[in-house]
């Protein structure tokens, strides 16, 4: 029977009838009463907590506590919405994964079969056991449809081969395990952390005293498949009878030695693969080879040994520990401090829809948008999450963000031009500023040292100080410290938030002057160094835009296309020169071989 709660019962509980439902037989009847009551209790407790918080500390801003001067403290314990952001920063619940460590193992080969032909009127049938199938391989396939490493398992094991059967039925090979990896993935082989565990287990098992017969049987069962009741007959043979099993063991041991030597030679150099932009979609890489299948008893058939009663087991597959690091491939990368407007700009020029909010670290993983032009030309632009001071030392999520800048052909610096004119910004966790600095400044002033009126007033305006210029220098220093030479790539500057008419024009004029002076100094320093390149001779362009209102966006995309086309033309010319050089070297090698062959023929004729 169904237990149904009637509308009158709902009226007695002061609930509408539509909120109730019934379950099938042998199940409990639930209503939304408990859920509503629980929600009301939670709401009441939340109201009490909010009253207490408002009475004790009215400093919460979007979940972040305020500092002494009323600014958001991004290093304090987050709560509310900021706690959700912190949860994502700890890699919990994120759909985007750009680094992982996995273990891949090829499938074990199938075991051989010990079988003999059985037929009416046939006294002694021939051995007809089938061989085992090869284990499956682990294959990585480059895919342009994948954008994250989230789908890759921590342990990838290919299926083993099928065992052989009688009547010479060989087992089929195991199915290959194909794992798709996104473009821009770097695959590195690392030492196995299980080696120490294996050594400890061997010492533990070695300390156990096993009988001589048990030890031999255990060792033999790892490599051999024996016919029933054969173990005792192999150890107790009559005098004068040849032990063919020992000969078979010697053959298999020699083959195992050759296979192990081949595997050792292949694994001498650690695996290193780079699935870059030159890799074609669908290209496959063999990562872990499957083990060979075991031999059936016909493999050991000789003119003297007409009835071998043993077969071999399949070999273990190749095992590797790998680290996968994803570096986003894009024509241009948007680099900037938090809240500079990178995501807003990407949404203005492409069809991408990254998260946009008025608090730092809204973007937690790179977004790629495609800029479409009227002549069907496309430019891929990557929105790199905001960098902070000390990112090259892995402060915050420094390396997680900086690794995605390496693949970008063009660097686009997005600078907030709407900062307060002549005043240093002080945001803890972003500008490497702490309230203790102001306390130390006050103590120094009280000690009697002579300070100017400008130093005494922290909010005094300095007409020669530019916060946008300091932001740009911070980005340059972090990129250069992370990878020397990274800032020499073709680049441009987007002066965002130029619609703020109060301070943007003043900041823009001072910013342009300081940037051109600093760029000229860097160009002279790079030209004098031995590692100078052709990219050091161009002048960096500064374009004021308003990404929010899509003002001056066309000019930015036009300049960006010119820089990207020039960089791609350089890469194509370099690839053509490399191909021509390889072709010339191959022709020289063929000519040398032909000359050597002619000399040897002439010497033999003489």
From TrEMBL:
MF (Gene Ontology): GTP binding; GTPase activity; magnesium ion binding
Identification of the protein by name: GTP-binding protein Obg/CgtA
InterPro entries per the UniProt record, alphabetical: G_OBG (IPR031167), GTP-bd (IPR006073), GTP-bd_Obg/CgtA (IPR014100), GTP1_OBG_dom (IPR006169), GTP1_OBG_dom_sf (IPR036726), OBG_GTPase (IPR045086), P-loop_NTPase (IPR027417)
Protein's GO biological process: ribosome biogenesis
Bias (Acidic residues): 434-445
Domain OBG-type G intervals: 330-565
Annotated organism of origin: Linnemannia elongata AG-77
Key words of the record: GTP-binding, Nucleotide-binding
Keyword match Cell wall biogenesis/degradation: no
GO cellular component annotations of the record: mitochondrion
Family designation: Belongs to the TRAFAC class OBG-HflX-like GTPase superfamily. OBG GTPase family.
Gene3D superfamilies, A to Z: GTP1/OBG domain (2.70.210.12), P-loop containing nucleotide triphosphate hydrolases (3.40.50.300)
Positions with biased composition (Basic and acidic residues): 46-68, 568-583
Superkingdom assignment: Eukaryota
Keyword GTP-binding recorded: yes
Domain Obg: 94-329
Chain positions covered by the region annotation Disordered: 42-81, 434-460, 568-606
Family annotation (SUPFAM superfamilies): Obg GTP-binding protein N-terminal domain, P-loop containing nucleoside triphosphate hydrolases
